[in-house]
Amino acid sequence: MFLRLLFVLLIALNIAVGAWLLLGQDDVHGRSATDAGVPELHLLSERPAPPASAASAVPGAPASVADAPAASTASTPPAPTPTPVTPPRQTSYTCMALGPFATQVDMRTARSALSNQAARMRSRQEQTTQTTGWWVYLPGGGSRERALELGRRLSAANVGEYFIVSSGDQSNTISLGLFKDPANARRRRDQVVSAGFPAQMSERTESVPEYWLDVVIADNGRADWRSRVHGVGSHSTGCF
Q1: Beta-carbon neighbour count of residue 111 at 10 Å?
Q2: What is the C-alpha separation between 147 and 156, in angstroms, rounded?
Q3: Where is this region: Disordered (predicted)?
Q4: Is 205 within 8 Å of 129 (Cβ atoms)?
Q5: Helix residue spans in the chain (DSSP H)
Q6: Nearest CA to 139 among 189, 183, 207, 206?
Q7: How does strand 233-236 pair with strand 163-164?
Q8: Rg (CA), the chain
């Protein structure tokens, strides 16, 4: 009895397995487990890979805009245009010599007056020839005796105010006067000549010092120096 029951159970089990094999696997028979018209669900792992783009399929082809690297959106921004820098304006200077000053004191006073205006200054002394007067005379006779004889003749012709030079390069010369004004000197000479004597006229000079102040002044203050220094002239000189 037990064996019969076991046999029946085995047969029933085989029937159940056969029915499951025939009815339980839908894909075997091409049937869908879903209702008609309802889209079939797939796992993400079962989705097919997207087709490769034409750019990636062709070697060496340029990448499309969509496939461009992120560097296109994060490209280096253009360098800012530098602001032009205006160069500083250069100051031009004028170099002048002021003078001549009569004394060193006058020159130092002028230098003090221009100390805040001149960029550079230097003082200098020069020797110059200055006219001291005009001399009217009669050339000497070469000896003291001849000069005395000439003097007596002048007195006889009523030509007074003379004397005989007794020393120096002009010894034994008859001096008829030294004049500051050349007009007065010419008048005296003509008077003696009209009396019959060969009077002559010459300029007397001497070497005297002159004091100058060389200055370098910016052009914007060139005209202002005259309001600070008076009584002297100016001329251009080399810059230093």
Answers
A1: 18
A2: 14
A3: 48-92
A4: yes
A5: 2-23, 54-57, 104-113, 144-156, 182-194
A6: 189
A7: unpaired
A8: 65
- Say if residues 137 and 200 touch (Cβ distance below 8 Å): yes
Alpha-carbon torsion (217, 223, 228, 232), positive or negative: positive
Q: Give residue 176's pLDDT.
A: 94
Instruction: Express each pLDDT in 7-24 by its tens digit.
Output: 778 888 888 777 777 765
Edge-to-edge strand order for the sheet containing 200-218? 163-164, 174-179, 118-138, 200-218, 93-101, 233-236
Q: What would the two tokens of residue 169 be?
A: 């390069």
Higher pLDDT, 24 or 231: 231
133 touches 204 (CB < 8 A): yes
User: Which neighbouring-strand residues pair with 209?
Assistant: 127
pTM listed for this prediction: 0.47
| Residue spans per domain, the chain | 93-129+208-236, 131-205
Which CATH architecture is the domain 93-129+208-236 placed in? 2-Layer Sandwich (3.30)
Same fold, 93-129+208-236 and 131-205: yes
CATH of 131-205, one of 2.40.30, 3.30.70, 3.40.630, 1.20.120: 3.30.70
Residue 33, SS3 per DSSP: coil
The tens digit of pLDDT for each residue in 146-197 reads 888 988 999 999 988 898 988 888 888 999 999 999 999 999 999 999 999 9
Neighbouring residues of 34: CB distance < 8 A, sequence distance ≥ 6: 40, 41
